[in-house]
# Entry
Amino acid sequence: MDKIFKGMKPSRRSFLTGAAAAGAGAVATVAKGQGAPDPAIVEQQPWRTFLGEGVDAYPYGMPSEHEAHVIRRSVPWLTADPISSVNFTPLHELDGIITPNGLCFERHHGGIAEVDPAEHRLMINGLVDKQMVFTMDDLKRFPRENHVYFLECAANSGMEWAGAQLNGCQFTHGMIHNVMYTGIPLRLLLEEAGVKTNGKWIMVEGADAAGMNRSIPIEKAMDDCLIAFKMNGEALRPEQGYPVRLVVPGWEGNMWVKWLRRIEVGDQPWHAREETSKYTDLLENGTARRFTWEMDAKSVITNPSPQAPITHGPGPTVLTGVAWSGRGTIPRVDVTIDGGKNWHQARMSGPSLNKSMHRFYFEFDWDGTPLLLQSRAHDSTGYVQPTKNELRAIRGENSIYHNNGIQTWYVNEQGIAENVEIS
Ligand code: MTE
Ligand code: CO
# Structure
């Protein structure tokens, strides 16, 4: 590949020329230099010498053994115990916008509930005309919808408030996943129960040992929340709330209660632990922001990044990343490779869906000098992702949650990338 690109402009045409030449064998057999033939082409590869495994070797398919490094990872010192802990989506290994089910980050407060769907019930009580209990079979008789949504934990990037901390976008930004949910509009279940006129809030509660619960205003419950039982076409994974979880599009992940067992309708919020002592933002003046549900627009460059250095040397380089907003779509992402001296509009590719991840690319010819990479998302409301300093000027230094500041990666002459902060 090195030889093929040498002296060529990184245009679409030269990529195609290179590929064609490699296919013909003329250039690629000597591409490793010194005229020595490339053994990957001229020697028999072992996998050509025997028949492969037949169908059904893996009744549930697994990725190639060469992809064994593509896994969720945790930061052991972050939490005292894995039961109430978090691991992170390997964003730097993914492309497009969909997170594969096995790679969706996990956040549990009391471990993964081992729910038997046959014994699981979803109840609606409180300020309703008719208290109701649904089995999983009952739920599947309601009309269902399919939507792709991101789920971002409010604590995503929380470690980065005071300065650059964790070396890799998996750890700085990996408390997010983006899947297609199949579920029933929550509105349909609430209408079935009949919300009384003084029913202004719902409380959603999980069946896990943590019994996690949150208050949600009735307007949101009636708008776009889903009672989801499938992700990316198959049943929810146990760690994502099997057999049923709440989907609260665009709002902080903590509200997306997993193993959902109860919905109570009330006339005021419950002031649960997760909306008082946690998931509130302490400001400089000693007061706290509360009920900050919506996730602000945010983006991150996933490649290059600390876990995904540039290994090919100078020349054509693909920069890519993801962007999202809890308020709509992402029509535009700007990218800089020189720490903000020059900004370029990135190329968006893939579906642009409401409250979903978006994928962007920026192809450039790397001259081998150090880079300062940043991305800046614009959402469909006109909101522009702030710098970390802009955020701190308003929110102070005590916060953990809702850090959507611009991320910087420094890339040195060797292509090694590092988490740094410049603005
Ligand atoms: N629901 C229950 N029942 N128990 C939990 O511990 N964690 C919450 C939320 N729902 C949690 C829960 C938090 S803080 C987040 S960020 C999301 O689930 C994480 O969802 P995931 O594990 O599918 O990534
Ligand atoms: Co969370």
Q: What stands out?
A: Residues 107, 153-155, 253-254 surround cobalt (II) ion (ligand 2) (CB under 6 Å). The chain is about 10% helix and 25% strand.
